[in-house]
Protein: DUF1648 domain-containing protein
Organism: Planomicrobium okeanokoites
Amino acid sequence: MKKQPAMKIPKSLFAQFLDWLTILVFAAVVIFLITQFSALPDRVPGHYDGKGDVDRWGSKMELWILPLIGVLLWIPMTVLEKYPHLFNYMNLREDNIEAQYRNGQLMLNVLKNESVLLFSYLTFQGIRVATGGTEGLGIFFMPIFLVVIIGSMIIFLIRMLKL
């Protein structure tokens, strides 16, 4: 297997915007969790089924797991974004290396931000369900989430094949 050339690709303005938007939303949700924590009941949603209904209740400390997972995803994916030459490409050629690296870098950025926004939303909804503001995620949560994540991957895969 031939080693791909390393190339420093600056982060696009769109990727920077997504990062800042996600950081702001994530911070707002963490602040909301901190401010609401003492008012939360001892039992909060621990898991949801495919229809968005709560199918397991747990300790309110479990609400911290989702932001923790978000941070544990964010950090390594942000570092990996800086090294697009480490990604696996289907049609990397001399004439499209930079374009493929930019596409791969943006794909990782979009998936990273979608994932962290998902965990932020789940944390927010967990607080709302625990306090009686809603009953679950709703039946459309899972299909929308899957369309967004899989749709993003398909879009970037098509872009990669066209380059």
About this structure: The radius of gyration is 19 Å.
